[in-house]
Amino acid sequence: xxxxxxVNFTVLHRTCKLVVLLCLLHISxxxxxxxRSFDIRLAFVQNQQSHKxxxxxxxxxLKDVELTEQDSVQPRKVSGVVDVANVSEEIKILGNCPExxxxxxxxxxxxxxxxxxxxxxxxxxxxxKTGGRFKPSNCIALQKVAIIIPFRNREEHLKFWLYYLHPIxxxxxxxxxxxxxxxxxxxxxxxxxxxxxxxxxxxxxxDYGCFIFSDVDLIPMDDRNTYKCFSQPxxxxxxxxxxxxxxxxxxxxxxxxxxxxxxxxKINGFPNxxxxxxxxxxxxxxxxxxxxxxxxxxxxxxxxxxxIRHERDAKNDPNPQRFDxxxxxxxxxxxxxxxxxxxxxxxxxxxxxxxxISVDLGKPSQ
Length: 366
Ligand code: BGC
Hints:
Layout: H1 2-51, H2 58-65, E1 81-83, E2 92-94, H3 118-124, E3 133-134, E4 144-151, H4 155-171, E5 175-183, H5 191-205, E6 210-214, E7 218-220, E8 234-235, E9 239-240, E10 256-260, H6 261-266, H7 280-290, E11 304-307, H8 322-326, H9 329-332, E12 344-350, E13 355-360
Parallel strand pairs: 4-5, 4-6, 5-13, 9-11
Antiparallel strand pairs: 1-2, 3-5, 6-10, 7-11, 8-10, 12-13
The chain binds beta-D-glucopyranose (BGC).
Beta-D-glucopyranose (BGC) is lined by residues 248, 254, 278-279, 281-282, 322.
């Protein structure tokens, strides 16, 4: 009898221990799931607060998503993106930026009498990140734009450009980067080749779909002149003060222009053999014309811009060969362009407001 009750007691004891263990296991699993869902709810609430745009309600953002413009390139079809890469840290619900930015102010006062202090420009543009990169935080930019500036010894002009352009480009709600391509050799200046280098170097960094080619001394006088790409190559500096606020001639394509990657590749990029001042922009115009493209332009008033006055640069005298070269674009454009580009990168400097790429362009080929 005593033996039997001992056996019964041991079985009962073991069963009880098992039940208690199962209960503990159940409680711990429930606790883990409860804590995880609490964490996600908390992150979502915080995110809703920090990402709520100051001036746009959620319904405005969703409405903006439906807006598209016929002639702008790369419209994104995404109606909203939920980034769940790290759910507990960040839940983003962003719509596309509107076709026309609500932040634009129109005509601007541009003057060059007071020198610019770059510390001040950095402080005034805290959202511009290293290398001169920016993208809007409350909507997805419609275009990824690389701004290419051919450069040599124009530090003061660059300061004005950064001072005026960074606020404008941010108001235009672009995902952009600024690339200053510095000709760091002893040869005659070669603007178009520097632009080709800028195209190639910018694409090594980011998936840009649009390229703005801008002289360093040209500042737009109206922020509605958006630095983006259109269904046709765009000439942006259409009414320069230097030319009495009008086009010097209908085929003029100098100063500031934009091209999508596709448009640029269709013309094999720009010529590499225009050394010295003049002609390269006419050659680019010829290329576009030969490939059946037309030039899109903003209206005269919106396309107004100011040029910073300066003496002619050393090693940039007018190129005597330019007339002959322009006459032969049709023959040369297949073999001279982005497909024949060669150069050496000497230095890459990441400043807060821009990326400076110093290059050796080599020597003229005859
Ligand atoms: C040159 C261009 C220049 C234009 C306006 C033309 O003669 O070939 O390169 O942009 O004049 O100055």
